[in-house]
Every structure is written in C-alpha cells, then in structure tokens.
Amino acid sequence: SWEPGTPRLGAEDDKVEILSRDKYDVHLPFWCNLYLVAHYAVVFYGFFDLTDRYMGMTPISVLIFVFYIIASLTIIGMVFDNSKYAPILEALRCSALAFFTRSLSSTNPGLRNNSSILLRDISNVLVLTHFETSRNQED
C-alpha cells in the first residue's frame, strides 16, 4: 500500500508479482451432461412433490426427503466438477432413489416394478465408466 514519500502507486520494490492461474474448466461428454440434466429434473420434480405432500408426511420423512434433495444437488455438482468421490456417491444416490421409489411409492404402484432398479444400474454403469475412462486419460 501507499506510504508517504513513495510514488502514488507504491514503490516498485514493494510490489508483489502476481501469477495468473490456469482456468478451471472441466469438459464432460455430451451424454454425461444429458445424464446430469435428467437426474436434476428428477430431483427438481421431487422437490415440487415434497411441497405438495409435506403436510401429510411425518417430520422424519420430510427430513429424509430434504436431505436427499440437498445430497443429490451436491453430488450432481461433484459430477460436474469431475470429483474423485463422485462415482461412489452417485452410485449410492441412485441406489437410494431406487430404494425409496420401490418402498415409498404408495400413490403410484407402477413405480414398484423393476424399472427403478434398471435405471439405477444403468446410471451406475454410465457414471462409473465415465469416471474410469477419465482417470485413465489423466494417467
């Protein structure tokens, strides 16, 4: 900073050299972006479903629902950032979604079939394959 007796912009000897950083920009394949947008839409729908039903739910059910929404948004962000923890957390999130879809779906019995398990398995394979190939390319 400026001190009396020095030039208006400070002494040249006191200036710190600032180095620019590389831009942080993660490139994901198009299918991965579609995958994340689709799963975000499911979470978005779940949020609005919660706002419609929360008065008829137990407080613990609402808390679990809110925790799932927050965790889902966090994990989706981790996948966008290509985090090393994202594959296992995404697999757990998809498994939790399949479990809750099968066990808590009393208003729509059509969701109780094996489609939720199939969706979970396809999601897990896609995400784990993407992260495995991206880790191999870094090495």
UniProtKB/TrEMBL annotation:
Keyword check for Endoplasmic reticulum: yes
Annotated membrane topology: Multi-pass membrane protein
Localization in the cell: Endoplasmic reticulum membrane
Keywords: Endoplasmic reticulum, Iron, Membrane, Oxidoreductase, Transmembrane, Transmembrane helix
Main location: endoplasmic reticulum
Domain of life: Eukaryota
UniProt GO molecular function: glyceryl-ether monooxygenase activity
Cofactors required: Fe cation
GO CC, alphabetical: endoplasmic reticulum membrane
TM stretches of this protein: 28-48, 60-80
Keyword Protease: no
UniProt xrefs under Pfam families: AGMP_C (PF24858)
Protein's GO biological process: membrane lipid metabolic process
Coiled-coil intervals, chain numbering: none
Residue stretches making up the Alkylglycerol monooxygenase C-terminal domain: 32-103
Alphabetical list of PANTHER family matching this protein: ALKYLGLYCEROL MONOOXYGENASE (PTHR21624:SF1), STEROL DESATURASE-RELATED PROTEIN (PTHR21624)
Listed name of the protein: Alkylglycerol monooxygenase C-terminal domain-containing protein
